[in-house]
From TrEMBL:
Protein name per its UniProtKB record: CCR4-Not complex component Not N-terminal domain-containing protein
PANTHER family reported for this sequence: CCR4 NOT-RELATED
Residues in coiled coil: 41-68, 132-185
Domain CCR4-Not complex component Not N-terminal, first and last residues per copy: 4-201
Length: 209
C-alpha cells in the first residue's frame, strides 16, 4: 500500500510538471511568433527547444509507467503523453520554418550561383529530414494507439481490437524499417559516401514505398 501511494505521488508530481511545462512552452511559442527581430526569435527558439527536451524526458517517464503492470487505469497517463506529443509536433513545425528561412536568407542570387550538384544535395537532404520527421510522428501515433488498446485489456483482446493491434504492429515495423534506411542515406549523403548523381527524390521515394 505504501509503495502504491509513493508511485501515485510520483505520477502526480510528474503530471504537474507536464502541465507547467506545456504552459511554459505555449508562452514561449507565442513569443517566437511575436518576435520583432531575428535575434529575439533565435533566443526564443532556443528556449523552446530546451522546454521541449524537458517535456520529452517527462514523456519517457510516462511511457515507462504506461508499459508497467502496476497501474491499472492508464487513461490519464495516455492523455498527458498525447498532450506532450502535440507540443512535439508544434515544435517540429517551428524547426522546419527556421531551417527554411535560414536557407532563404542566403538570397536567390546565392542559390542561383550554387553548384547544381550542391543544390540538388541540399534538396535531397531536406526531403530526407522531412520524411524522417513525418514517419517519426506516425510511429508515435501508432505506439500511442497500441498502448491505448493494451491499457483497457483484460486477459484477451476481442477480434476487432486484436486485428487492429496486428495491423498497427506491422505498420510500426515497416515505418521503423523505412526510418533506418532513410537515416542511413542521410548519413551517407552528409559523409559524401554516396554521389548525388546516384540519388534522386524519385528513387528515394521508391525505396521508402
Amino acid at each position: 500500500m505504501a509503495a502504491t501511494r509513493k508511485l501515485q505521488g510520483e505520477i502526480e508530481r510528474c503530471l504537474k510538471k507536464v502541465t507547467e511545462g506545456v504552459e511554459t512552452f505555449e508562452d514561449i511559442w507565442q513569443k517566437v511568433h511575436n518576435a520583432t527581430n531575428s535575434n529575439q526569435k533565435e533566443k526564443y527558439e532556443a528556449d523552446l527547444k530546451k522546454e521541449i527536451k524537458k517535456l520529452q524526458r517527462l514523456r519517457d517517464q510516462i511511457k515507462s509507467w504506461i508499459a508497467s503492470g502496476e497501474i491499472k487505469d492508464k487513461s490519464t497517463l495516455l492523455d498527458y503523453r498525447k498532450l506532450i506529443e502535440t507540443q512535439m509536433e508544434r515544435f517540429k513545425v517551428v524547426e522546419r520554418e527556421t531551417k527554411t528561412k535560414a536557407y532563404s536568407k542566403e538570397g536567390l542570387g546565392a542559390a542561383q550561383k550554387m553548384d547544381p550538384a550542391q543544390k540538388e544535395k541540399e534538396e535531397i537532404s531536406a526531403w530526407l529530414v522531412n520524411s524522417i520527421d513525418n514517419l517519426n510522428i506516425q510511429v508515435d501515433q501508432f505506439e500511442s494507439e497500441i498502448e491505448s488498446l493494451l491499457a483497457g485489456k483484460k486477459k484477451k483482446l476481442d477480434k476487432d481490437k486484436q486485428d487492429r493491434m496486428d495491423d498497427l504492429k506491422i505498420k510500426l515495423e515497416r515505418h521503423r524499417h523505412h526510418i533506418r534506411k532513410l537515416e542511413t542515406l542521410l548519413r551517407m549523403l552528409d559523409n559524401m559516401s554516396v554521389e548525388v548523381g546516384q540519388l534522386s527524390i524519385l528513387q528515394i521515394r521508391r525505396i521508402k514505398d
